[in-house]
Amino acid sequence: MYRSQWEIQNSMIKLMKAFPYSAITVTMIANDARINRKTFYGYYRNKDELLFSMIYDMFDELFGCFMYRKYPSGASVEEERPRQDIQRFLELVTFYEERLLTLITTETSRTAISIADQVVLEHCQDICIPDEKEDRFLRKFYLEIIRNFFMGAIDAWMESQRISLDDGIAILSRIMEQSYLDIFCYER
User: Structure pTM?
Assistant: First the structure.
């Protein structure tokens, strides 16, 4: 079961390297994966759902490095914990780099941003965002900041492979301390 799903996803990546997203069909994906179209439809309704699933799973894992409640109110933070989260995030970006560059194109960027927003929203109950009843505008603003933080951090890390992991961790740590630490629930 998982082998077929893995083959379908790999075929999608392979085809997106060769063709624009709009030119890819379910038949092309099934043929490349050497599966029956019915097998494809056993996992996904269409190619859009496949793309959504692939991007969603990556973003959920990437964003999950930070977006969960780490410490109950009043608890102290292990000094090493934020560094470990950042290191895991940067390692995952490196791991997913080919997929990110292949799946998120000019043609699919709106979908990717929509998925990023959905992932952020799903984690909202665990991060420090003002209650919707309090101020809708402020809540939307925070969500945009968080999404932009992730997308910017992913972009910057992929473009700056000349720096070491330790330097990347140090830079991202400084940025988070200055701007985002409270949002990601690290108690000071």
Answer: 0.83
Measured CA to CA, the distance from residue 57 to residue 6 in angstroms comes to 13
Single-letter code of the amino acid located at 173: S
Report pLDDT digits (tens) over 43-102. Answer: 999 999 999 999 999 999 998 887 665 555 555 556 677 788 889 999 999 999 999 999
Q: What is the dihedral of CA 122, 75, 181, 88, to 10 degrees?
A: -70
What band does 188 get if pLDDT is binned at 50, 70 and 90? very low
Is the Cβ–Cβ distance between 43 and 4 less than 8 Å?
yes
Cβ count near 156 (within 10 Å): 15
CA-atom Rg of the chain in angstroms: 19
Nearest to 26 by CA among 50, 46, 55, 4: 46
Distance in angstroms (rounded) separating the CA atoms of residues 81 and 70:
9
- What gap in Å lies between CA 9 and CA 123, rounded to an integer? 25
